Amino acid sequence: MTHVAAPMSLIQRDRVRLWHPYAPASPSLPLWEVEGADGVRLRLRGEDGTRHNVIDAMSSWWSAIHGYRHPILDAAAKRQLDDFSHVMFGGLTHAPAVELAERLADMAPSAPGRSRLERVFLADSGSVSVEVALKLAVQFQAASGYPQRQRFLSIRGGYHGDTFAAMGVCDPVDGMHAAFPGLLGGNVFAPRPPAAASATPETIQEWASELQSVAAACSGELAAIIVEPLLQGAGGMYPYPAECLTALRQVADRHGLVLIFDEIATGFGRTGELFAANHAGVVPDIMCVGKALTGGYLTLAALLCTEDVAAAVSNGPAGALLHGPTFMGNPLACAVANASLSIIDVGTWRADVARIGAGLASGLAAAGELESVADIRTVGAVGVIELHDAVDVPAITAAAIRHGVWVRPFRNLVYTMPPYISTAADIEQITAGMTAAVTEVHKHGPERSGGAP
Description:
InterPro entries: Aminotrans_3, Aminotrans_3_PPA_site, BioA, PyrdxlP-dep_Trfase, PyrdxlP-dep_Trfase_major, PyrdxlP-dep_Trfase_small. By secondary structure, this protein is of the alpha/beta class.
């Protein structure tokens, strides 16, 4: 009798062929199949066949701010599909891209006496928008008579993406790219700003003086300063004072440097302002946005710059910004992005983020009493449990799922960036699930657990 092998499950088939982010190509990789998504919830199926209805506390890596299957976003995608889904952007244009550029320019940070961010370059992803921003800064300096300015100044703890130039401005020691030391540019790093919770006017001024010293030491070689404003994301979910953005603007102006704000994670309301730059009333020369731009529906990012920067490069030796992705300005993504920005324009995001932030602070407070917990912090609609030791990611993930919450911890952080439509009950479940998972998996502090799990 011929034996017929049982068909492999979707997860088993995945393990044979796919490679997941920041994970080994392993047949034992913990995975859950997504069978559906609606509102703030994911319907998951485990490898053992068990099903879980969980709150997506991650907003699909910070992008699905309006939740899943939003009727306005769904309708925008369907309308655009009825027209056309893609055309090249070289020599052609279309209404969704023009409308998106106008919307972004209108929404961008502004301040008296500063040039507005008026020119928009549409990119495929956040990392690509950072690549373009760095190239643009170098081209600007060359067009301004400083071709030797090809290095970048950033701050410790930063993260700007996984492509090569973006990796080169991430933290070179504690970042995720230390495996490539010979391939990354020799850029310059100032100390990390003081933590928002403990900063004083004196420590902010001390940091600003250090920043000035670092910039002055090699200003003739620097093209730009690039930072994540107010909140460092994948570098540690680390908030710092808004006054530091003012210092960054002053140093950039003093030394003729382009100031780049990477608002890919912080943009569109996540920190409590539409853009993190608005907390300080600072306008950068270049700003990158992505992630929540399309409400998590499609990959799209954008770079905004001042007309001064655009004009200098356009009139410079190259006569053009030297970048052009195949799917630049994808009409389908632009149409959904316009719908997402419409929700922000008429919605209640500011009140929602404030409400979520208060719920996260209240709900996570109990976790601060655990021996294994080093810190609890919140900013806007972001909540973080920092452990003394590295997180046992598979165990924490599985425990949180049992409590009805999807989280994706990293390093020593269990954190949440929930969708803005999350209710008070949703936030209560998220914080309770995170606290319960940490309690179950990391019961004791480092002196009793013997170090990292």
